Amino acid sequence: MDFSAQAFASFARRDQRFWGEVYLRGLMLDGERKSVEPMAARLPDGDRQSLQQFLTDSTWDPVPVRAAMARRMAELIEPEAVVFDDTGFPKCGNESAGVARQYTGSLGKTANCQVAVTTHLATDAASYPANWRLFLPEKGWDPLSPLCPDPAAVRARRSRCKIPEEVRHRQKWRLALDSLDELTAWGVQVPLALADAGYGDAFEFRQGLTDRALSYVVGVKADMAAQPASAQRCTPAYRGRGAPPKPAYPDKPVSVAALAADQKGAARKTVAWRTGTKHHGGKTRTLRSRFIAIRIRPAGDAVAKYYRGQDLPECWLLAEWPTGADAPVQFWLSNLPADTPIKTLVRWAKLRWRIEHDYREMKVGLGLDHFEGRTWRGFHHHITCVAVAHAFLTWLRLGKETAAA
């Protein structure tokens, strides 16, 4: 398989390349379970022990594999945005690397699971999960954290999972920026970043994107504090005692939900962003809703501290206000230029659907959450191979579409 040969070109040994190709075929073959034992049974050249060794004990580095695939897929799909998200992997026990009771959006609840931060290259027509970071919860997996109740027990737990000493807890938004920096080091650069409120609510994440010269459209929660764009700092009168007052905004910030709700009905515009999937009757429908786009100044303690003595910068607030709803239901911030059309803002805000498509394809078709091992290395080997399988299927699909055109 030429594709696997290119994907695994960094492997030092021939046997690693062989079992990598076998593992890829196992992931893409039909079968309800994509863990090692059932795949080995289905494959004509499958060997459970060899596949297990390739996955959990072999010393191959997944990073060069991801780098090669990221460059190849960036050339193929010509991504318009990099999208950050995370997904959960339910677990029954407590010994898998990073497992804990934690919230995951893929399950919509708190559960015993692992969580991985993912970085996708995306367009309207295709996307690719180019990079991964396994999230380590602070309390149960970082022995140097003040929240850790028993450092010795945590070190023993990490040793059983073979987690490298230098790997510690990092917030998900930091893992996302780390992943972005790695993509850039691989030579893959995309000018626009998208994320949901789990990332967009963190001012440090938004500022990190700005510092890296990226535009962004990121979700935020309804209660995020902001000033209207018209707000201006003013200097209170000096009363002759103490230090002279400094310029400040005269009114307290309010929530973005309140700012959006203050807009008159005429400000709401109906915008269509893509053709949806088929529904009953075999017909497709155009997805549309009503939106408001206004200029605001995000506030809050972290923003105020960073911009101390300066005007808070303006950005876009995009709010979705469906027909019949009493108030807006979703909110996004964007640092795109002030003359950006609302249709463009909506298009980028809604592009995150591609990531749900990736997760569904990898979990339903490629066994993303079927890994039964417990080690750090095994987890990253498995998800890297799943991403390569996803890349191959995307390459096949886009090739057929190009030929048909």
From TrEMBL:
It comes from Catenulispora pinistramenti. InterPro entries: IS701-like (IPR039365), IS701-like_DDE_dom (IPR038721), RNaseH-like_sf (IPR012337). Transmembrane segments: none annotated. This is IS701 family transposase. It holds the Pfam family DDE_5. SUPFAM superfamilies: Ribonuclease H-like. Residues 8-278 form the Transposase IS701-like DDE domain.
